[in-house]
Write a structure and sequence with these properties.
This protein has 432 residues and is of the alpha+beta class. Among the domains are: 2-151, no CATH class; 354-432, no CATH class. Helices cover 47% and strands 22% of the residues. Strands 3-4-5-6-7-8-9-10-11-12-13 form an eleven-stranded antiparallel beta sheet, with helices on one face. Strands 1-2 form a two-stranded antiparallel ribbon.
Length: 432
Amino acid sequence: MSMKITIICFLLLMNAIGFEAVAESAQHKADSISLLKEAFRNKDEETFFNLFPHSYAKFIEYYGYVKDEPMPLYYEAFEHIEYLASSKICKQKLLEKMVNIAKDAKWEADAPSYLREILTSFILECPDTILSLLKNKEIKEINNFWYFILYYPSLNPENDDQYTYMYEQLYRCVNERNKAMGQIIKDVYHRIVVESKCDSLFEVIHKAERHIPLKSFDVSLLMESYEDASLRNNAELEECRSEAIIHIMYDTCNVKTLLYVIKDNTKYRESFVDELQHPVRDMNEINKHDHKGFRTGLWIENQGQQTKFCFYQKGVLDGPCWIISANEKRLYSFGEFSNGEYSGVWYSFGDDGVLLSMQKDFKKTTCEIPQKHKAQGTCPYQCYSISYHPNGYKQSEGILLWAVSPDADNTFEYGEWKYYDKEGKLVQAINY
């Protein structure tokens, strides 16, 4: 019994010590902040510099906005950072502190943004000092430093002249002194360019996903959900719509990269970009050829009013493919190719993101075009096609013959086709 009492007393003591340590830490932070504010008021540069945060975590503790709450010095951030930058402190020491904060930083409004603007000016003013401070950092920290400097949210880097000018200034300034570091800047810039394209795609696909009901991970239920009006109006269905496109892409097309595309989560977005490039040193390396001159990897192709994202292996389409409008506001279609041919399930969308049609069961054929179409010859491919009314009910379904694409004009109904009214009721069946 005495042993148990001893253990309990020991645990209570440790718990008390823990609380005391936390309280002491909180008090120390409050004291440091108070002294920092006093040094600023008194224009005591040396004390202010010594008390100013030396890491990004501490910087956010003092000046950030965390969990919808302003930190103690949030409203003093701009004048404090400006005061630090204009102080007469040794430039080497000043920049060392700023680099140590920025190497772990990420873009946030206000304080981090102020810091980034000041630091960008210093890079152009004192590039040799910055480079000497970075050379002893780990490669991950160096990459993060430049990402922090170059990343701007809600910006299309390729279409913003001011941003492009800033990037080119930084790149030239650094590259003429250190080509390896210049290459890192170039890599980071092109990563941001690809991410901006992906962000546009996220928005388009999220818009479309609202119109694709799916009850569970079983993609076969997609068909049932369109056929069963009670299921489409079920409250349970609303809860899983946000997951619908993920499972359609992942389970039907078996496409890992497309799973990343529409996950609204930073970790998945980063993974998606990693899938696209290892690393991208130039945008031309996205549209690249293998040693035999064949297309390979991700290709982004502009086709008039459309932009096509697709993957090649040995010059043949093989992997996920999605087509968006050139202004990146509309998703036209997505699906998968296998060894140069349509595969899996393909989805096509209207201007408002509503699902227009779905094709599956792709195969080669030698079927002749039915006489009802007043055309002659055979088509090399067929698939099972389903079209939908804007309200989600099935409009028609049957076998489709085609030569170039199931979405092209020269397609032909074959065999029995069923047609439905806007309430999903069968109104006609025609044999072709």
